[in-house]
């Protein structure tokens, strides 16, 4: 028995040591690299999976203003998380409809809380597909406010001011592209 025990023990120790060596411990590397660079969920690289709401917006030439605002507000990681989110995403043209200087003012560091409030007013927790939105429906938004959905001539309208012009599924929710910026009511 002793003749078999010593080689077996040595083999087990070698296997155990090699499993814990830094050269073979690749599973921990992405998390460690992400922590070292200071990036959160948005820093995870995954080219195989469906894109999340932030990645889709970042890849859209029509949403560069929204992406810039999300970055300035520090919301990239939050919107890259699992969600699920319904994002009402204004186009660049929608931001251009704001009064002159409004966007520039909101992008100033001292206005970050106002920018966060407005951006969070464009996000609902949960996935609300366009065909499931009902006339008169009220959705609670991340900032604590509510938006009202109306339907007219087959179109989905948000707060009577922004029309959903497209809907795009994402890995962590859905994006409804809208032609207006939603402004929360003053409290």
TrEMBL record:
Residues 50-182 form the FAS1 domain. SUPFAM superfamilies: FAS1 domain (SSF82153). Residues 21-48 are annotated as: Disordered. Pfam families: Fasciclin. Keywords: Signal. InterPro entries: Adhesion/Biosynth-related, FAS1_dom_sf, FAS1_domain. Residues 1-21 form the signal peptide. PANTHER family: FI19380P1, PERIOSTIN-RELATED. This is Fasciclin domain-containing protein. The lineage of its organism: Bacteria, Pseudomonadati, Bacteroidota, Chitinophagia, Chitinophagales.
């Amino acid at each position: 028995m002793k003749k078999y025990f010593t080689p077996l023990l040595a083999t087990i120790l070698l296997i155990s040591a090699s499993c814990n060596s830094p050269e073979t411990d690749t599973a921990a590397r992405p998390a460690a690299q992400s922590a070292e660079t200071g990036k959160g969920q948005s820093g995870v690289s995954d080219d195989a999976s469906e894109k999340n709401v932030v990645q889709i917006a970042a890849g859209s030439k029509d949403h560069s203003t929204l992406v810039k605002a999300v970055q300035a507000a520090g919301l990239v990681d939050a919107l890259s998380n699992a969600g699920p989110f319904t994002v009402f995403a204004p186009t660049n043209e929608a931001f251009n409809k704001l009064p002159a200087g409004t966007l520039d003012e909101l992008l100033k560091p001292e206005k970050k809380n106002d920018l966060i409030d407005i951006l969070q007013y464009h996000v609902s927790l949960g996935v609300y597909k366009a065909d499931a939105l009902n006339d008169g429906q009220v959705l609670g938004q991340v900032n604590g406010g509510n938006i009202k959905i109306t339907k007219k001539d087959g179109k989905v309208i948000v707060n009577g001011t922004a029309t959903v012009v497209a809907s795009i599924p994402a890995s962590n929710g859905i994006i409804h592209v809208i032609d207006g910026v939603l402004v929360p009511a003053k409290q």
